[in-house]
Each structure stands twice: as structure tokens, then as C-alpha cells.
């Protein structure tokens, strides 16, 4: 009798382990009406995903999607920005913008601004590595609205960024092949729309834990055609309702560090979510994180990926790759 019970238990465990865990990365995840979502300072806010958006603000944003701040940092002005203004050629020609070096654009997430940690962290990583133009997009006018409104207005702000980069191209002659767009959370979908505005001609789009709530089925979310090479780093996806990231493939290459759900050294979804831009900044400096290609979500979960290697993140404008990848990291910088 005891042997029979033991066999039954073993069979049950085996069956459970054999069931594909694709649902952990599924677009079918349903969010409750009210969720907790962090601002740029790490403060959690209750979000009503069914709230009526501010249509007056959205109308203003869509009529003038370029109404954002574009703040330039270079090795000649590492700490004090210069403001570039669309359709004002003098603001560019009189600045330190150098068309002969790459341009990196950083887009923050919800309830954030130019001072949020993601911006100086990635800026300093780039300027410490090489001579580049770093442009911080401050889209606080929309980002400081309620989440439902901000999410709905992201495509228009993305189009505005695309129009701004087209203006940079006309004024300076810098090729789109020299541009890399990096966005976090809502900002990840924003830079995807910017790349789309430019016909997918920018060299790279990097989506750092793209926001999940209201985006699972949205045609405006970041997608592979938004750039010559599009990469996503997923750090807080998964099946739990607390996951802040989209948790499903959206790019040419989708990386799932540590499985893409829970990160070493983190006890909260906020920490997991922020790891995406922290990992990326570290890879710009060290280029040390290498993923193995996976064929199924189950392989990602059980860390059994044995495919080709591809480095996650970094500043390589000629990078290529497709598929989904798993890698493991440490608990502390540089991870």
C-alpha cells in the first residue's frame, strides 16, 4: 500500500514538472482592475486600469506630440544638459551635438522625469565608455498623468520622438544607423513607436522590461519591426498579477535574465522591474552577460537552454540576433 502511494506521488510530481510552463510568459495573463505600479522614485501607487483617461490632455498630446524636452549630454557637458528643440536648427548647431559619433536616446517610465535614476545611470555608463551623444527624453507632461492616460498617450509621444530624430537627421546629416533608442517600462513602448515613425530604420531599439498592464494585446506595443535590431530585457514578467513587465516575446531577441520573473537580491516586483535598466547599464560598461538561446518557455523556467550564445545589452550598433535567451546574474553590481 505504501509503495502504491509513493508511486502515485512520484507520478504526480513528474506530471506537474512535465506540464509546459508557457503560461508564465503568456499574453493571456489577466490583470485585476486595481494594481500597484511604481513611480520613478520607487513609490508604489494604486492604479485603476479601467479609469477614464484624461481626453483633454490626450488631445493636446496628439495635436503636438513633440511637446517634450530633449536634453543633450556629451563628454563636453557630462552633468549640465543642453536643450535641443525640434524645428530650431540653432539649438542643435550651437550645442555639443556631434553627428560623427553615435546618438543614444533614453526614455523613462511612468511618473518619472529627467532626474529619475535610470537617466544618469545609463548616461554615465555610456559617457564613461565612449564618445557619444546622450539625449534624455523628458516626457513628464504625459508621464505625470494617471497610468491609463499615460499608457494611451505613449504612441503619440513616441511619434514625436521619431519626428525629432528626423529633424536631427535633416539638420546634422546623422544617419539613423547611428541611433540607439533605449526605453524602460512605458518608455519601452514609447521608443518602439519612435522607431516605427522612422520606418524601422534606427540601428537599435532596446526595450527594458516593457510595461505589461494595458499592453498585452495592444498593437502599439514595441515590436521587432521598430528598428533594424530590437532587443527586450524581461525582468519582472510572469504569471503573477504583481508582475510589472509584459513577460512575453516582443522583439527580435528577448532576454529573460534569471528566468525573467524574480531577480537575485530582490524581494519586490519594483526591484525586479528596475533590474532591467540596471543590467543594461552594467552591460554597456562590461559587456559581460551572455545568454543561451531557448526553444521553449519551459527551458527558460528550468534553465535548460543549450542554444547559441548572444550577449545581452551592450552598446553595439551592429548587433544582430533572434530568439529568446536565458542567462543568470549575480545579486550586486555589476551582476
Automatic annotation (TrEMBL):
Signal peptide location: 1-18
Keywords, in A-Z order: Secreted, Signal
Domain of life: Eukaryota
Cellular component GO terms, alphabetical: extracellular space
A molecular function (GO) term: lipase activity
Pfam families: Lipase (PF00151)
InterPro entries, sorted: AB_hydrolase_fold, Lipase, Lipase_N, TAG_lipase
Localization terms from the record: Secreted
Occurrences of domain Lipase (ranges): 63-305
The keyword Transmembrane helix is annotated on this UniProt entry: no
One annotated GO biological process: lipid catabolic process
Family of the protein in this entry: Belongs to the AB hydrolase superfamily. Lipase family.
Name of this protein: Lipase domain-containing protein
Originating organism: Mythimna separata
